[in-house]
Amino acid sequence: MTASMSDAAKLLDQRSHFAFGRNWASYAQLVTETHVQAAVDSLRKLAGGDLHGKSFLDIGCGSGLHALAALRLGASEVLAIDIDGDSVATALQLLQTNAPKQCWSARQASVFDLEKHPPGAFDVVYSWGVLHHTGAMYRALRAAAALVAPGGRFIFALYRWTPLCWLWKIEKQWYAAASPTAQARARSAYVALFSKAFALRRRGSFSSYLADYRQRRGMDFHHDVHDWLGGWPYESISPAQTARFMTGLGFEQVHAFTAAGVRLGLFGSGCDEYVYKRK
């Protein structure tokens, strides 16, 4: 096996990834009904309405928050998977507490496991901010798209390409392997610089920004900073590249929530959100 092949195989191994699951377990302790409702509103926007009678697959379920949101929107069946055992445990607890009598299941698996053992076709396949962390983003997109039923929707979010993506790859690989003390220092430096840049570029207080941030997807800024700085493996893609790839898989675009123009990516690339329909 060549060095490049060995490196590629290592990226697919969950042991080489950032510990997303521990971060989600910490975040889940903060989840309130307000967070759940924000997740419901976010998912409703992407899905174009409720999910009554639809089957829903959540790839990379994290805390399980958006699997719960799908149930709140009327999904008839929800399957939540994640490669990280800590994430699965957190999702199980969240769903057992908030949806004990509804039809759902959660298990540990990667999107690549679903290539070998597909769980069936789903009306909605959802994967927000996940497939760019698999170590093989295009293969992951293809594997996830294959699970969308005819006429079904594929809802996903991916890091947008920026001129500084190369720098973030270096940073993320370092951070994922760094000590907790070094990670905490990096987070403090990032937040301090971000808040200063915010004050220079925008009107309003940083505290107001944090409150608004919580409302958008039901997420927490400081947990997301940890997730962003440590998100290894890391890949990114432009909207045009996404459109070409998805068209080649037999999908048509329904919505694309993307940033206008090209961003430098000084504080991160951010995610573009996509909704595609299988023809």
Layout of secondary structure:
Blueprint: H1 3-12, H2 20-28, H3 33-47, E1 55-59, H4 65-72, E2 77-82, H5 85-98, E3 104-108, H6 113-116, E4 122-128, H7 137-145, E5 148-159, H8 165-177, H9 180-201, H10 206-217, H11 221-230, H12 239-248, E6 251-257, E7 271-278
Parallel strand pairs: 1-2, 1-4, 2-3, 4-5
Antiparallel strand pairs: 5-7, 6-7
Helix pairs in contact: 2-5, 2-11, 3-4, 3-10, 9-11
CATH overall fold name of the largest domain: Rossmann fold
> Which architecture of the largest domain does the CATH hierarchy give at level 2?
3-Layer(aba) Sandwich
> What oligomeric assembly is this protein in?
single chain
Strand order of the largest sheet: 3-2-1-4-5-7-6
Give me the secondary-structure category: alpha/beta
Q: What is the beta-strand fraction? A: 15-25%
